[in-house]
Amino acid sequence: MKKSILVCGSLAQKPYQGGHTWVFLQYLLGLRKLGWDVLFLDQLEREMCVGCDGKPCSVQDSVNLRYFLRIMDDFDLKGHYALLCDRGTWEIGVNRQAILERSSRAALVLNIMGFLRDEEILGRSQKRVFLDIDPGFGQMWQELGLHAALTGHDCYVTIGQNIGRPDCGIPTCGLSWITTPQPVVLDFWPYTESNHSLSFTTIASWRGAYGPIQMDGKTYGLRVHEFRKYAALPLVTGERFELALNIHSADHADRRLLEANGWILVDPREAAGDPWRYRSYIQSSGVEFMVAKNMYVETNSGWFSDRSICYLASGKPVLTQNTGTNGIYPCGRGLLTFSSIEEAVSGVQEIRRNYRGHSQAARELALEYFDSNKVLSCLLKKLDVL
């Protein structure tokens, strides 16, 4: 019998968000490719559910459930998922008894952002691993006593690759952190020639689900607080910049700022409303221009975007704000970083000058540093399960 790994995450709560969906798929499909029997655990409460009309409804009638089941079906995950409903009182997919049995014999439970809080399931596992994909927020919430997601785990993994170093502002919370890049399953992300003129694009949320954090007299903010610094870039460079941007209607001043400076804003639901549209949007782009959350920049976190990895795998150069990744990955070919608008302009010009070379280098970086076979094998060795 193949050894199994349970992966816990919050997919059903955010339907029609292709990038969010791919975060979990990269782990599920990547581990399966390595020969592991995977079981994906998710939770869905009635108060989170909406119907096609956007109004509250039952779990059974929700777009949340419809989207979740479509993803499980289309990626051949039948028999490999369980959706715990109404605080775990009933399940869709694998039943609770089978979940408990698989948890007790699994090599580990990979609990992404500590999402699963079901003590009966977690208590059966041999190794409970917290996977941090939003470095800085969870650690600061823990330190400030706002949210204790880190408790109850045996091992702690983060994609913030500078955590624990003197030049990183993220608190360790007294824990020993294992660092890892994020994986990309290259079979699903082939090198793709762009069919359009060179365009700088990205897919992003302007603010996200939660606000800035204040700690030790300093405020750690969101993407909006960094992006405003680079608003003039399309006008300065004369290049086409396009954003599939989730921005609230109340942010009308920021929308006007972007549009006045030449940014083309497209509907993120149309561009990236499911995994296929998300992939198509990236693969039809020329370059990613990526601005990070202020939290990642100010803490020198070493965070690198899962979305940027998909751009690289597709042969799309990435021009990204430096979050402390210089020195972790080779920069200058395929991957270029900036810390000021002047450096961003230089990066745009360099990519324009030698696009084909940067495109080929982007794919090579994905092969070398982010291939799921390499990344996940290395992580499992660090967790002592290989």
Features:
alpha/beta, 386 residues, Rossmann fold, 15 helices, globular, 6-stranded parallel sheet, 8-stranded mixed sheet, single chain
Overview of this protein structure:
It is a single chain. The chain is an alpha/beta fold and 386 residues long. The protein has two domains: 4-183 and 371-382, Rossmann fold (3-Layer(aba) Sandwich); 186-370, Rossmann fold, CATH 3.40.50. The protein contains 15 helices and 16 strands. It has an eight-stranded mixed β-sheet, with helices on both faces. Strand 6, helix 5 and strand 7 (155-158) form a beta-alpha-beta unit. Helix 12 (306-313) packs across helix 14. It is globular. The two termini are 16 Å apart.
> What would you report as the Rg, rounded to the nearest angstrom?
20 Å
The CATH architecture of the largest domain can be given as 3-Layer(aba) Sandwich
Give the number of domains: 2
Number of separate helices? 15
Q: Provide the β-strand percentage band.
A: 15-25%
The strand order across the widest sheet is: 4-3-2-1-5-6-7-8
